């Protein structure tokens, strides 16, 4: 019998791209809030999801440097289970409830991309980087302190897709307007059979369940963000018309479940 939570399924199951949940994450995040043109960003939403009219196009660009494990000490295999990722979240609503909608995401690791597809995140392969801080004091280690500067960038196929800079100003006790909405994503898997390419095998809106979320060393400051125009990508259509706060923090969380909100194949 073939085993494995994802492909490739194999006799032992260890060849699968990612092990079964629960999945545990820890890492550092650099984020910038921004506003885009609602007339353009509304076109990227699936049926039933609407922009939050109270937020006028507010969104968040998020760079994450992560370490992952499931239940078999996967964190001891860093080449396979460390990853760097980039997400965009739009302030939106589903049936009147405030949510965060993820239209684009990038990761530098195949296991992270597969986990994203299982969860509904539309992850693509990209190179993601952010400034790091270390316990040893050095000019090369950006400190968590007032006026300290951090940067992040994501590129794909040799093209810069997004670049952010943050100047830290003050510590904060809790996040306001960041990771305080449930994320809604779309699990989509198309058919290959001739004549039905337009009909997906799976097309679900799902609410991602994030458990045991812990935020540490949260700093808030000033943000800068650009989405350069690139060939073969559409991220620049969400380009900022205004940029707000920047954030830098560490986090941990666990993921093992999602709630199906709607079957869009119907």
Can you describe this structure?
It is a single chain. With 266 residues, the chain is mainly β. The protein has one domain: Beta Barrel (Acetoacetate decarboxylase-like), CATH 2.40.400.10. The protein is built from three helices and twelve strands. The protein has a seven-stranded mixed β-barrel. The longest helix has 10 residues, at 110-119. It is globular.
Short description:
Helix content is 7%, strand content 52%.
Which features characterize this protein?
266 residues; mainly beta; Acetoacetate decarboxylase-like; 7-stranded mixed β-barrel
Low-confidence stretches: none
Terminal CA distance:
33 Å
Helix content: under 10%
- Report Rg: 19 Å
Under CATH at level 1, the class stands as: Mainly Beta
SS element count, helices: 3
Domain module tally: 1
Query: In this structure, how is the largest beta sheet organized?
Result: 7 strands, mixed, barrel
Shape: globular
Spell out the blueprint of helices and strands.
Layout: E1 23-35, H1 38-41, E2 49-51, E3 58-69, H2 78-81, E4 82-94, E5 97-107, H3 110-119, E6 123-125, E7 127-130, E8 149-156, E9 159-171, E10 183-190, E11 200-226, E12 242-263
Parallel strand pairs: 5-6, 5-10
Antiparallel strand pairs: 1-3, 1-12, 2-4, 3-4, 4-5, 7-8, 8-9, 9-11, 10-11, 11-12
């Amino acid at each position: 019998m073939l085993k494995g939570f994802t492909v490739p399924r194999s006799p032992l199951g260890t060849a699968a791209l990612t092990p079964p949940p629960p999945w545990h994450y820890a890492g550092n995040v650099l984020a910038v809030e921004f506003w885009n043109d609602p007339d353009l960003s509304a076109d990227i939403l699936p049926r039933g999801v609407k922009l939050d009219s109270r937020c006028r196009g507010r969104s968040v660009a998020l760079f994450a440097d992560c370490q992952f494990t499931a239940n078999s000490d996967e964190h001891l295999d860093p080449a396979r289970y460390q990853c760097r990722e980039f997400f965009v979240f739009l302030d939106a609503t589903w049936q009147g409830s405030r949510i965060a909608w993820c239209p684009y995401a990038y990761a530098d690791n195949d296991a992270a991309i597969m986990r994203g597809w299982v969860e509904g995140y539309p992850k693509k392969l990209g190179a993601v980087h952010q400034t790091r801080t270390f316990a040893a004091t050095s000019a090369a280690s950006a400190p968590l302190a007032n006026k300290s500067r951090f940067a992040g960038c994501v590129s794909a196929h040799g093209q810069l897709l997004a670049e952010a800079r943050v100047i830290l100003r003050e510590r904060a006790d809790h996040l306001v307007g960041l990771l305080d909405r449930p994320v809604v994503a779309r699990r989509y898997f198309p058919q290959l059979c001739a004549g039905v390419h337009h009909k997906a095998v799976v097309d679900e809106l799902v609410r991602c369940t994030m458990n045991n979320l812990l935020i540490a060393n949260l700093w808030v400051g000033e943000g800068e963000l650009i989405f350069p125009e690139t060939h073969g990508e559409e991220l620049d259509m969400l380009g900022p018309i205004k940029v707000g706060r920047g954030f830098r923090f560490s986090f941990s969380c666990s993921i093992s479940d999602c709630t199906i909100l709607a079957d869009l194949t119907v």
